[in-house]
Structures are given as structure tokens and as C-alpha cells.
Amino acid sequence: MDDKACEAFFAQPRQTFQRQYEALRAIFADGRSQKEVAEQFGFTYGTMRQLVCKFREACDDHERPTQSLFFEPSSANLAPRTTSRSARRRWPTGGN
Fold it and tell me: Which member of 34, 39, 41, 63 has the lowest number of beta carbons within 10 Å of its beta carbon?
């Protein structure tokens, strides 16, 4: 079975949050350099440094240690939102 399209989904993500996730995973899980990862995923080096800094801050955030930084449980889509969108967003969504 040819899984090239499935491999490309992870190696060349198109959506911003997935690109951020895969880039941060490459840095923290694979031990790759920020410069190399920024180039692969289409970020500037400055943007990559900012994402790494924000990710570290979020990991140190004791207010929500068990909540995912990238994914919400599917039931969260059904629950009424009690905070504003800007209060919940911790990641830059624009960028390169």
C-alpha cells in the first residue's frame, strides 16, 4: 500500500496549528535545531523562536496543566464557551 499522501500530511502540514505542532514536536521530541525546523515548516527563525518561547510558557502554566495546547476534546465543541476567544488564544495564528 502506498502511503505517500499520508506521510505528506505529517511531513508537509498545511494548516497553521498543525504546522506549529509538527514544528514544535520536531524541536522537542526529535531534538532538531530551531533554524532547520523553521525552514522546513515555512516559518522565519524569529517566529520559530517565539513559538518555542510561548510553548515553554504554556507548559509551565500551572492553571491548566492537563489541557492540550493544540487539541480540544470533541465534547468541548458542544459545551457553551465561558471565556472570550481572545482570552483562550495563546498562539499566534498568522505568520509565514
Answer: 63
Mean pLDDT is highest, among 5-19, 28-42, 55-69, for 28-42
Angle CA 70–72–76, to nearest 5: 155
From CA 8, how far away is CA 13, in angstroms rounded?
7
Whether the pTM exceeds 0.70: the reply is no
Residue in 21, 41, 24 with CA at minimum distance from that of residue 32? 24
Name residue, grid cell 504554556.
58
SS3 85: helix
Q: Which of 18, 62, 60 is nearest to 43 (CA)?
A: 18
DSSP secondary structure of 72-89 = --GGGGTSPP-S-HHHH-
Is there a contact between 41 and 30 (Cβ–Cβ < 8 Å)? no
Contact 91, 17 (CB under 8 A): yes
CB 47 within 8 A of CB 38: yes
